UniProtKB/TrEMBL annotation:
InterPro entries: CbbY-like (IPR044999), HAD-like_sf (IPR036412), HAD-SF_hydro_IA (IPR006439), HAD_sf (IPR023214), PGP-like_dom2 (IPR023198). PANTHER family: CBBY-LIKE PROTEIN, XYLULOSE-1,5-BISPHOSPHATE (XUBP) PHOSPHATASE. It comes from Nocardia rhizosphaerihabitans. Pfam families: Hydrolase (PF00702). This is Phosphatase.
Length: 236
């Protein structure tokens, strides 16, 4: 067994319940602000989540609702900054809460001297205030989609975290909620623990080392307990 030196977290859907009550709301507000009739309800948004990245998601939607491809892309690129601004406001208003078990897991890892990092394809403008509001300054290295535009399932954002921290993949574990996230982490040769949510329960997460119902699932809690206890034993 190799010592657990770092845990690298995804943000959306993993550390926080941000999709349904955050991003979805921000996309709809951006559509309304631009005078567009488009609205995404909870189920429709669940389907659209298969497409990673806000601009891609909007482009796909505008095309599938009959806009010509070039117009769809232009519209999506124009709306994305508004969506980011609205998302940032939701974050600053405290609308996005940590998932159950997130704070406890972070506390436990910190107590054991495990470094905490973030690998997200979200935009830094809302990711930073979100992490600060929800968790304080607990993360060492935060790499976002602003620095690494390759979307998951590309491993690029994980590889960037590993490169910046100098951590070997066998000494780190990724925590993800979705199929694209698990694929990104495992392509970077990381072990990945999946904490599903309502939107990702139907995803194929079979590449993950463990698939749990959430960060407060006793199976996930005991998986980390076992790892940390093992490391402590080796140190003695
Ligand atoms: Mg996610």
């Amino acid at each position: 067994m190799t010592r657990l030196e770092a845990v690298i977290f995804d943000v959306d859907g993993t550390l926080v319940d941000s999709e349904r009550d955050g991003h979805r709301v921000a996309f709809n507000a951006a559509f309304a602000e631009a005078g567009l009739p488009d609205r995404w309800d909870v189920d429709c948004y669940g389907q659209l989540l298969k497409i990673a990245g806000g601009t891609h998601r909007m482009t796909y939607w505008f095309e599938s609702t009959g806009r010509p491809p070039a117009h769809a892309r232009e519209l999506a690129e124009r709306l994305h900054p508004s969506k980011t601004r609205i998302m940032r406001r939701l974050v600053e208003d405290g609308q996005i809460r940590p998932r159950p078990g997130a704070r406890q897991l972070i506390e436990q890892l910190t107590e054991h001297g495990v470094a905490l990092h973030v690998a997200t394809t979200g935009t830094r403008a809302w990711v930073e205030p979100l992490l600060r509001n929800a968790f304080g300054d607990v993360f060492d290295t935060v790499v976002t989609g602003t620095e690494v535009p390759d979307l998951k399932p590309s491993p690029a954002v994980y590889l960037e975290v590993l490169a910046r921290t100098g951590c070997a993949p066998e000494h780190a574990v990724a925590v993800e909620d979705s199929a694209n996230g698990v694929l990104a982490a495992t392509a970077a040769r990381l072990r990945c623990v999946a904490a599903q949510n309502a939107y990702t329960r139907s995803h194929d997460l079979s590449a993950a080392t463990l698939v749990a119902d959430g960060l407060d699932d006793p199976e996930l809690v005991s998986w980390f307990d076992t790892r940390l206890a093992e490391d402590q034993r080796l140190e003695r």
